[in-house]
């Protein structure tokens, strides 16, 4: 399903203190497939969320640090040890109520949390991924941004600067509306915002060009050759073919929409308004895809993300599968696990029951029982 290579990254152990419903746990992991089994509401997803935080993205559920902090506690900590490209790493995340958490990689404090992606990358599959197809454009932008961001801290940097600039620009639009600021100030802002927007656009389009063939091939095999998946980027303003004109294109779009923007007090054009469009057999998936097709599209995009990360890093990400095994038919399930296993990808899977796992693979996996925020190795 994805390119041939071998994973060289592994989390050897994790320690959680006051994280969600975990008071304090420390567990060693298996280098291959790890399964967390337990009833609903016991802490399985919480654990995957903690592992995903190690790659420097925010929570996959979009939770804030204050949400992840155990109730009535004043700090949470996540520590992990592992290997990346066969070199040991230690990660220490500490949140104690301030605006940003303190992040250390190998004892060095990082200014930017997303620099953690140097050590660990993760791709997470969860039931919420269905929203990728039918949800709002922001879901698909988030997918793109996380995917590109993991392979490029520089992209995260530009994205953050752009988002901040847009927030400030919106505030300026409000002040102009109230006659507290002038158009000349807006001209100055637009000069600042435009190059950031164009940079984001270029990176997104380049990434889609890379990811689309993977996603297409994977979807094609999931549908047994019957259907084709296409991905295209929809910009919120007209773009010429030649990238050299994009800066002018964006500035023109800002000028054209200016009066409307002042009335509405929001920036209406730019990468924060764009979309990733998905098509099956040339029809827009958002409008026509069935439940099963939506699941296959989401799965194809995530598997393509694994391939994309491998392409850039020559290293697979750690794969987190939250409750998705039962969504796949037995044949696909086994295929996916075998593919990951053969490439020595470290995988963390949550499930409420073990029926979904092929008996032949059980001996290659490590099992953990999750109950009321406690976690221990088990053999059944
Ligand atoms: N900040 C927090 N502090 C303490 N407990 C929390 C916090 N946030 C969530 N919880 C608790 O964590 C539990 C949910 O954990 P989680 O989402 O990991 O469940 P799960 O095992 O994945 O269940 P399911 O199988 O239903 O998906 C709930 O009992 C919830 O009350
Ligand atoms: Mg869960």
From TrEMBL:
**UniProt keyword annotations, A-Z:** ATP-binding, Cytoplasm, DNA damage, DNA repair, DNA replication, DNA-binding, Nucleotide-binding, SOS response
- GO process terms (BP): DNA replication; DNA synthesis involved in DNA repair; double-strand break repair; SOS response
Record GO cellular component, one term: cytoplasm
- Which GO molecular function annotation, any one, does this entry have? single-stranded DNA binding
Which sites bind ATP?
A: 38-45
Domain RecF/RecN/SMC N-terminal positions: 11-357
UniProt xrefs under PROSITE patterns:
RECF_1, RECF_2
Top-level division of the source organism's lineage: Bacteria
Residue stretches in coiled coil: none
Protein's cellular compartments: Cytoplasm
Q: Which InterPro entries match?
A: DNA-binding_RecF (IPR001238), DNA-binding_RecF_CS (IPR018078), P-loop_NTPase (IPR027417), RecF/RecN/SMC_N (IPR003395), RecF_2 (IPR042174)
Q: Indicate the principal place this protein occupies in or around the cell.
A: cytoplasm
Against Pfam families, the record matches this protein to:
SMC_N
* Family per record: Belongs to the RecF family.
Q: What does this protein do?
A: The RecF protein is involved in DNA metabolism; it is required for DNA replication and normal SOS inducibility. RecF binds preferentially to single-stranded, linear DNA. It also seems to bind ATP.
Q: Which NCBIfam families match?
A: recf
Name of the protein in its database record = DNA replication and repair protein RecF
What organism is the protein native to? Heliorestis acidaminivorans
The gene from which this protein is expressed is recF
